[in-house]
Amino acid sequence: MKKFIVVLLAALMVFSFAACGGGNSGSSDDGTMKVAMVTDYGDITDQSFNQTTYEACKAFCDENNIEFTYKKPASDADADRVSSIEEAIEEGYNVIVMPGYAFAPAIREVAPTYPDVKFVAIDVSEYDLTHEGDKEVEFDGKNVYSAVYQEEIAGYMAGYAAVKLGYTKLGFLGGMAVPAVQRYGHGYVQGADAAAEELGKTDVELKYIYGNAFAGNADITAVMDTWYGAGTECVFACGGSIYSSAGEAAKKAGGKVIGVDVDQKDIIDGQYGDGMTVTSAMKGLAATVNTLLRAINAGEWDSYAGQIQNLGLVSENPSENYVQLPESTQFGDGFTAEDYNTLVKELYDGTRTVSSDIDKIPETKVIKVDDQGAIK
Q: How far is CA 319 from the centre of its chain?
């Protein structure tokens, strides 16, 4: 009788543990695909990284009748990102989509604990995942896929287009000096320099600064007011919604802005005036989300699991690439849609090359770069 009671109590304990979610591997109860997107320090209305990722996830899930949710961490802290990821997993979501390098520590902590969960990271590099500060750490990401992008190519395209369209007083306003932003900026410098050399122009100047933030603020706007007031014509605002400071200052001075990550024309023009956005240096966030969710839904996760892919040009066709300029680009006599097609072809076939080095701002042949460091 005592033996029977012990066995019965053990069975009840196992049942209770399972019912409460103990040992959750990340699969939903019936094994179906369920997707959760977790935001970084921004939210799904940032008109940039988070919003584009959210909208791509939601659209795919709606179209394929897949359950979807999103989580916004309580703060910009690793612990809160971990908490949001684990909350989604405990609710049965087995595909977690995370945009931004800030997720690296959370991925290192959570991914090994939930081997049956599929983690899709965007813009989280191998260095991010294998380093804590300057210290190298081990990371086994068998259930993690991450896409990083060749932002230097998109930045090059934007700088090249700006000079070809006649702008000679340029600016680069980066968010924080993280690798993705640095690649955008360094590519922008190279593209502007190449275009100026081709045109035989020696009067092109480019101011370069980091705002130490991924959103506009009064200090950044003050610097932009100074730039535009002193004759700057077009600023590449590179860092989430940092465009707000550039747009606010450009509106007062009749200046122009270049957007980033996605086509920001509608938001920048909508807030600060029609025709303000010359172009946007874009990367294929939505395309990446669609590719991975489609693969997972088709049972092809093994073709991506454990990989970190560096995405850039995959075709001579601009619209098929992971880095590009949008159709809304203000093409003109100096830089037509046909000129853009030629530029993409040259970059794709190697006729024209762009350095991805971020150790220092690239040396230039004809343009003058004023490196102003970072706003304190």
A: 18
Which of 229, 227, 234 shows the shortest CA–CA distance to 168? 234
Do 250 and 342 share a domain, yes or no?
yes
* Residues 349, 187 contacting (CB under 8 angstroms): no
pLDDT digits (tens, 9 = 90+) for 180-207: 999 999 999 999 999 999 999 999 999 9
Note whether 109 and 180 are same-domain residues: no
Query: Do residues 301 and 198 share a domain?
Result: no
Q: Is residue 131 part of a domain?
A: yes
Calpha distance 21→112 (Å, rounded): 18
| Residue whose C-alpha is closest to residue 229's, from 209, 204, 202, 248 | 248
| Secondary structure letter of residue 168 according to DSSP | -
Give the tokens for residue 363.
């040396």
Tell me: do 357 and 236 sit in the same domain: yes
| Structural domain boundaries, residue 331 | 152-282+324-374
E strands, 133-244, in order = 135-136, 144-149, 169-174, 205-210, 234-238
Tell me the per-residue pLDDT of 94-123, one tens digit each, with 9 for 90 and over.
999 999 999 999 999 999 999 999 999 999
| Closest by CA position to 244, among listed 263, 218, 226 | 218
Question: Do 169 and 186 lie in a common domain?
Answer: yes
How is 179-193 classified by DSSP, letter by letter?
Answer: HHHHHHHHHHHHHHH
pTM for the structure as a whole: 0.86
